[in-house]
Amino acid sequence: MKHEDFRAERAGDPMDSRSDGANRPRKTQIVVVGGGAGGLELVRKLGAKYGRKRHDIILVDQNLSHIWKPLLHEVAAGSLDANLDEVGYRGHCARWGYRFFQGSLESIDRDAKTISLAPVMDKDGEEMIGGHTIRYDILVLALGSVSNDFGVPGVAEHCLYLDSREQADRFRTKLLNNCLRVSRAMIANPDADERVKVAIVGAGATGVELAAELYNAAGALKFYGLEVFDESRLDVTILEAGPRILPALPEKLSEGARSELNKLGVAVRENTQVIEAQRRHMVTQTGDTIEADLMVWAAGVKGAEFLSRLGLKTNPRNQILVSETMQTVSDPDIFALGDCASFTPEGEDSPIPPRAQAAHQMALTVFKNIHAKQKGKKLRAFIYEDKGSLISLSRFSTVGSLMGNLVGGALAVEGRMARLIYTSLYRMHLLGIHGWIRGIGLMIIGRVNRVVRPKLKLH
Predict the structure, then answer these.
(1) Which segments in the chain show pLDDT lower than 50?
(2) How far apart are CA 129 and CA 104, in angstroms?
(3) Around Cβ 21, how many Cβ atoms within 10 Å?
(4) Residue whose C-alpha is closest to residue 230's, from 177, 179, 184
(5) 174 CB contacts (<8 Å, ≥6 apart)?
(6) d(CA 72, CA 262)
(7) Which contacts of 40-43 are long-range, i.e. CB under 8 A and separated by 24 or more positions?
(8) CA torsion 439→444→449→452, rounded to 10°?
(9) Which of 147, 178, 176, 150 is nearest to 160 (CA)?
């Protein structure tokens, strides 16, 4: 579809700056770029608040659907069918009164108050939607983050990431292909010692949760056609440059999680820095070589490279610098939230960590400040409330700590209580992006799906 055709078929051109009729002023156009947890929740709130009468709320994302990023390790292992949990933007926008445009942010013209979107290409490299511009009165950047390879040679070429649904699907396909290879080799030669080797760099939440989820999936494969394959044929190694895994948790809980991983068969190697990734193996600072069929990089996040080229002030990790009101320090008409934003509270030494709970809280502050800005009222300062951290080791265990007003201090939690709270976080996300009625309905459907659907997604 060419650029001219795309513009002609739309109802209401987002570049149209004329008045909407003889006596009606131009609609206030609020553009949110990025449909992650924070961005999607924000457009829902804006659409519910303003509707389409005097406002034009627009969401821009390069994808057509949203899936909660903390679930990507389950998608990668095959434990979760993303087709059941993803949110289609077109259906969501029809429900909540905003508009959706597919595209990737290319540049911002702050003088003209427009953004430029790159052309959208199909898998064959054919142009589907031409590059175009969209005007804004208020712009919100909620572009999330990407994995930080810290410039380690070979990582981009040889390692897999879990930043998106597409990457999680790619990992799952490679995982299943290797499991099938081992299964067939064992059938051909029952005495063969064939294994699927996975190396995970980074022992934060993503790395640890993925390791446990892999064993959960491997244990179920024998029921889905791989009769001679089980978790004993899986070798998972976690490589952590720091002194312990899960540094965000208290040391006692970190040790507990490490013990659970060891019981599953995960080899955990702390104080092990990877200095190079090569085809099918990692090289550490001591010269050791770790062989692997699949290598996953989960050692940290940063903002995408293009964020540093938008003309807004960024930090060394390409995150956009924002003030306490979540407005960028470069332009008061541009807000930023979530992992792509960097805000250091007064008196603190480090910025707010890139977590889903931070994105949720930032989205609420931005929503209130957009409303206050249009009313000419004083904008409120963002106050981050750390609710703690929870780590799910699949069906085997859940550990974490609760903090803040929730418990009046800090409380370590494990077992069923931790699992219940961990599950409630996703339910809160559903309520945030769908509202109470639809959100509760989806929770019920989710419970039914766990009973009637296959436990693994194998395609």
Answers:
(1) 1-12, 17-22, 404-409
(2) 11
(3) 8
(4) 179
(5) 160, 293, 294
(6) 23
(7) 40/66, 40/87, 40/92, 40/433, 41/360, 41/363, 41/364, 41/432, 41/433, 42/140, 42/142, 42/337, 42/363, 42/366, 42/367, 43/93, 43/96, 43/98
(8) -160
(9) 147
Tokens of 10: 């739309």
| Residues 183, 185: Cα–Cα separation, whole Å | 5
Q: Could you report how far apart the first and last alpha carbons of the chain are, in Å?
A: 30
Cα separation of 193 and 190, whole Å? Answer: 8
**How high is the pLDDT of residue 435?**
73
Question: Residue 200 phi/psi, 5° resolution?
Answer: -115, 120
Distance CA 155, CA 88 (A): 32
- Whether the pTM exceeds 0.70: the reply is yes
Q: Please name which of 50, 49, 62, 47 lies closest in space to residue 92, comparing C-alpha atoms.
A: 47
> Token pair for residue 57?
């709320």
The crossing angle, in degrees rounded to 10, of helices 37-50 and 415-434 is: 40
Q: What is the model's pLDDT at position 10?
A: 41
**Six token digits for residue 276:** 């190079």
